[in-house]
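User: Second chain of the day. Same drill as before.
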Amino acid sequence: MHIAIAGNIGSGKTTLTSLLSRHYGWEPQFEDAENNPYINDFYEDMQRWSFNLQIFFLNKRFKSIVEIRKNTSTAIQDRTIYEDACIFAPNLHYMGLMSTRDFENYRSLYNLMISLVTPPDLLIYLRASVPTLVNQIQKRGREYEAGIRIDYLSKLNERYEEWIEDYKKEGKRLIIDVDTVNFSERAEDLSMVINKIDAQLYGLF
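Assistant: Same format as last time:
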């Protein structure tokens, strides 16, 4: 099976991926932001590096999906290919940080890739307000995230909400409200998330 976790920057995707991989014995597929050759440049000059960054993510995400589907074991993926193409790239284009020429080229490549893969067996969306995102971003203290603008996070949240509403036509989804469910620090909250996942995957209540 292929389980995927979606959510805005700082919503807790990596934390939940780690917790669920340990609980279920699933193989984790993490987003390796630390070894991304474009991430620092992007946050310093978004307009110059937006296309390069998004192509890098698209390539990595597509390769991950191909590997997951080839494998017989269950994998849990930190962020999805849909988020790159349906949220981050359109937002950069809307903000004038990616040219129309680059965006159309990007979308054409994405459409080809997405025609060759199937959706995850379950998509878990971590919904979080901007104050929660800011708090969690500050807690982890990544230097390259220090300059993320509030309006950037807010616009991403709007796009996430539009996308997740439409995603129900694609496959199974589970929405977790990170403002009220603290799975990283409260065992009872993590147990509740696990029970919801069991219900989605195995029909257990």
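The chain has one domain: 2-202.

User: Great, on to the next one.
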